[in-house]
Design goal:
By secondary structure, this protein is α/β, with parallel strands linked by helices. It has helices at about 15-25, 40-45, 50-65, 85-105, 155, 165-170, 185-195, 215-225, 320-335, 365-375, 390-395, 425-435, 440-445, 455-470; strands spanning about 1-10, 30-35, 70-75, 75-85, 115, 120-125, 125-130, 135-145, 145-150, 160-165, 175-180, 200-205, 230, 235-240, 245-250, 260-265, 265-270, 270-275, 310, 350-355, 360-365, 380-385, 400-405, 415-420. It is globular, with a radius of gyration of 24 Å.
Length: about 475
């Protein structure tokens, strides 16, 4: 029996886990990182990297409007004429350089500080490595094992014609037709990109559009998406049947008419669930909620067992790369200094869907500011739209909306929901404003260049100021 004793153990070597390891080592903690494999974070394997590669290829495919295109990717030019059948293989080749960089970084960790294997808890302070006689005791742990796509039970029964975003990028070539279940970020993005690539695509949803909670912004976003993609936001399925080489989907559309369609694949984009099932976390005493997710303190990232921390996708179903990096640092900081808690997870939320136009949620959502209002903290909404924006009109954007939310008493910017061209850049501006605790007075006189889509923010700030004046004492 081989027994190791260290200060901190990091379980999972994805984006959050690697950041947690680096932070713990910087704090002089004796740290081991364990990865079950295969090596490669979700962001590279099936997340933002291949998605953005497909985005770029689809954009250029549309721009060329022919079955052939010359690819320019992240400043890297090639003279190769690319056929549509080669697109997924090209995505895999391009993402390989990102993966190679990550693997090299992992193997720069000293050999006695990294372990490849499946770790599981024996008790709150001890883990074992499956298939070995190794056990490890630590003062603290960071669990950063990522997440996997969630497939509802009714789709699991359909068979191998139901795929996820993980599977899509491993197909030999693009399908001729696909039905996407889910209207979150993944469903909307892939639906638009595949449509551009002449894949017959239909998106089914249950009402949500890109995680938006503001009904007016969501309605504007749906109108914008419908100009590019065939989407049924409230489709109800009556039956799904797998045939030899396709899937038949029977459904009721929004007018209650019964319809059916045949597609090569169903792509399930109905969310992700944390990879916790194989860790035997019940042996560590970690409390689970009704969905079998581990409790995680949103401020400190501690579980119900104070010396065990979560980071990245493991801590939330709404994670992203920058959030995973930040949480990795917070969890690594707190774990390496445990029992002293030195860092707080308090960055504003940011969620961007890279459709055209883009969709963004920054800071508090509309639903969250409504919840504050129920507790007596009222808010003001400012609205901007592309209707009178020169840049939007020139680029042909007919739909979109910006709502910004301010605390009525303090005038602090709380958050925003956006569907607009350049929403990702607007989101970053608002993110900085929230982080720096800026108020309406700070923002209302801000001069954006002309013409630009950012002038929609000017309109929203001015609209909010008019609303504030209604509540000023006479």
């Amino acid at each position: 029996m081989k027994h190791i004793s260290v200060d901190t153990v990091i379980i999972g070597a994805g984006t959050a886990g690697m950041q947690a390891y680096k932070t713990a080592v910087d704090n002089d903690a004796d740290t081991i990182i364990i990865e079950q494999g295969p090596l490669g974070p979700t962001s590279i394997e099936s997340g933002c990297v291949p998605s953005q590669l497909l985005h770029e290829l689809s954009r250029q495919f549309t721009a060329n409007s022919t079955p052939m295109l010359t690819m320019t990717l992240y400043g890297k030019s090639t003279d190769k004429q690319l056929e549509k059948e080669e697109i997924l293989n090209t995505v895999r080749q391009e993402k390989r350089s990102f993966l190679d960089h990550y693997i090299k970084e992992f193997y720069t960790i000293p050999e006695d500080c990294r372990i490849m294997g499946h770790a599981f808890f024996i008790d709150p302070h001890t883990i074992a490595i499956e298939g070995t006689d190794t056990t490890i005791t630590a003062r603290s742990f960071v669990v950063a094992t990522g997440s996997r796509p969630y497939i509802p039970h009714e789709l699991q029964k359909v068979g191998d014609r139901v795929i996820t975003s993980d599977d899509l990028f491993n197909l030999s070539q693009l399908p001729k037709s696909i039905a996407i279940f889910g209207t979150g970020c993944i469903g909307l993005e892939l639906g638009e990109y595949l449509t551009r690539l002449n894949v017959k695509t239909i998106i089914f949803g249950k009402g949500e559009i890109g995680h938006l909670t503001d009904p007016k912004v969501a309605s504007a976003a749906l109108s914008a998406i419908r100009e590019k993609v065939f989407i049924i936001p409230y489709g109800r399925f009556t039956s799904i049947e797998q045939q030899d080489d396709h899937v038949t989907v029977y459904y009721l559309d929004e007018t209650e008419h019964e319809c059916f369609l045949n597609v090569d694949y169903i792509l399930c984009a109905t969310g992700r669930i944390p990879n916790l099932a194989d860790l035997q976390i019940e042996s560590a005493g970690i409390r689970l909620d009704e969905l079998n997710h581990a409790y995680c303190n949103p401020e400190t990232l501690q579980t119900s067992v104070d010396h065990i921390f979560l980071a990245g996708d493991t801590s939330s179903s709404r994670s992203n790369l920058q959030k995973a990096l930040y949480q990795g640092r917070i969890a690594g900081e707190n774990a390496s200094n445990y029992p002293k808690i030195t860092a707080t997870n308090n960055i504003p939320h940011q969620d961007i869907t890279f459709t055209d136009p883009e969709i963004a949620i920054t800071g508090l959502s509309f639903e969250e500011v409504k919840q504050r209002a129920r507790n007596g903290r009222k808010f003001i909404v400012g609205e901007g739209s592309p209707d009178n924006n020169i840049t939007a009109m020139i680029k042909g954007y007919h739909h979109g909306l910006i709502h910004v939310y301010f605390d009525r008493e303090t005038e602090l910017l709380l958050g925003a929901e956006i569907c607009a061209p350049y929403a990702q850049q607007m989101s970053q501006f608002l993110y900085s404003a929230i982080a720096n605790r800026q108020t309406l007075s700070d923002l209302v006189g801000y001069n954006f260049y002309h013409p630009s889509a950012f002038e929609m923010l000017t309109e929203a700030f001015e609209d909010a100021r008019k609303s504030f004046k209604l509540f000023e004492p006479i």
